[in-house]
Amino acid sequence: MKAQIQAFFDRITCTVSYVVFDTDGGRAAVIDSVLNYDHKSGRTSTASADQILQFIRDHQLQLDWILETHAHADHLSAAHYLQEKIGGKIAIGAHINQVQKVFKGLFNLESSFAIDGSQFDYLFAEDEEFQIGSLTAKAWFVPGHTPADMAYQIGDAVFVGDTLFMPDVGTARCDFPGGDAHLLYQSIKKLLALPEPTRLFMCHDYPPDERAAQWMCTVADQRKQNIHVHDGVSETAFIAMRTKRDASLEMPLLILPSVQVNIRAGALPPAEDNGVRYLKIPLNGI
Fold it and tell me: Which residues does 57 contact at the CB level (< 8 Å), separation at least 6?
């Protein structure tokens, strides 16, 4: 059975979330959901996630999985909110503990914050298979952007997270803690060894002015046209390009609030004794 896929594009963070399901009235997974966050006021809202909820209800789907490709640095995850509303297991790759360890230290999180991934309901091992109703899915370990990135293959569709962008945008940065351009190159080559008609679904699109946002292309498209890693680009050339480019990039606007929430599986930090939840800004910390 071929997966049914519905994309939701959040124009503020340029993030694409997906509902993947077997059939109307069947079983579903949500991939890389967005909790809206106003960095000026510090307020969260759920407009993006509510669109996903409405789609699931309209199609009478049972949500089995809420999947994260990694602990995003550009948007807050709505995984916890979705689970509260409609259920499902929140899952990520088993290497999330490496990311949690780094950021627990940076943010000086509460001593009770575990760095073993236990905030998530399930941790995928490399190449582990799982079911979404009648669909068989596979979790791919694709480190490089972070040490814990995953991609999810469901039939002829692969949700690549931040490993790749559309061919005219290129590839993910590797200068976050634990990032590694060598590993990213190897991860991308693993994905691009799939059959050329395989559909690749991006987590983001930052389109040039001359085109509208897009989020799906094929392995063949990437191999022929990706500006950073098309066929013929050596690992040495890629690492040199990526290192030089990353040194020129600003930090993502929402990296500090996003990571604090996303390493908690989308849950907000615990309330303090005045009943208010706080996000921390480490001065001169990064």
Answer: none
Give per-residue pLDDT as tens, 70-123.
999 999 999 999 999 999 999 999 999 999 999 999 999 999 999 999 999 999
For 121, 156, 218, the CA distances from 263, given in Å and listed in that order, are 13, 30, 31
Q: Are 76 and 37 in contact (CB under 8 A)?
A: yes
Please report the pLDDT score of residue 208 as a whole number.
87
The pair phi, psi for residue 194, each rounded to 5°, is -70, 160
Q: Among 149, 130, 147, which residue's Cα sits nearest to residue 138?
A: 130
Give one word for 209, left, alpha or beta, with left for phi > 0 and alpha for psi -120 to 50: alpha
Q: What is the pTM of this model?
A: 0.96
CB 192 within 8 A of CB 223: yes
The pLDDT mean for the chain works out to: 97
73 vs 286: CA distance, rounded Å? 13
Separation of alpha carbons 80 and 65, rounded Å: 12
CA torsion angle 192 203 153 184 (round to 10): 40
163 band by pLDDT with thresholds 50, 70 and 90: very high
Cα separation, 270 vs 238, in Å, equals 42
The mean per-residue pLDDT over the stretch 211-230 comes to: 97
Q: What is the pLDDT of residue 286?
A: 79
Residue 54 has pLDDT above 80, yes or no: yes
Nearest one of 252, 226, 250 to 237, comparing CA atoms = 226
Instruction: Tell me which residue of 2, 83, 84, 81 sits closest to 34, measured CA to CA.
Output: 81
